[in-house]
Write a structure and sequence with these properties.
The protein is α+β, with helices and mostly antiparallel strands and 159 residues long. The chain contains four helices and seven strands; from the N terminus they run αββαβαββαββ.
């Protein structure tokens, strides 16, 4: 499908083929395990505590990316841990700051997923990293703005 600039199904919007995934991603708390404390944020809700941390550490943007369950297809714990380690290695090779994080779903039929909180990352770099690890979406924000769910353009149909 070609993606026109005003196409509601282009990168960044909800996937038309899997609206239940959008609901699941939004019904999740995204935790960042910072040295000082743990911060929990939700999509489209103000994140003042995280904004304060970003100001103190001179960051303007951030992303939360997981390598677990590519294309939202469940994998075993060992494979997910391996993918998480690969994500860490990739981020470190690019000298990107990172902290451990976790997506904790509200629903009992989804398992928590470890991920990385990446302060100071550019949106295009976050999107490229999420695509590299076959993620359907990531969380991204600019300081002072609520966290947003950003779709990569990949879908479960590519599995």
């Amino acid at each position: 499908m070609s993606q026109e600039p005003n196409d509601p199904h282009s990168i960044g919007s909800s996937p038309s083929a899997a609206p239940h995934l959008d609901d699941a991603y939004r019904a999740t708390s995204y935790l960042m395990f910072l040295p000082e404390y743990t911060v929990s944020v939700r999509i489209d809700e103000p994140a003042r505590t995280l904004d304060d941390w970003l100001i103190r550490h001179s960051h303007k943007t951030w992303a939360f990316i997981s390598a677990y369950n590519p294309l939202s297809q469940p994998l075993g714990d060992e494979e997910n841990r391996h993918r998480h380690q690969q994500l860490i290695e990739r981020v470190e090779s690019r000298q990107q700051s990172w902290y451990e994080g976790m997506g904790r779903p509200d629903r009992n039929d989804w398992k928590p997923e470890y991920g990385l909180f990446l302060p100071g990352i550019a949106k295009r770099d976050a999107l490229a990293l999420a695509k590299r690890f076959q993620q359907i979406a990531l969380v991204f924000s600019q300081r002072g703005q609520p966290p947003q769910l950003i779709y990569t353009g990949l879908s479960k149909q590519e599995a």
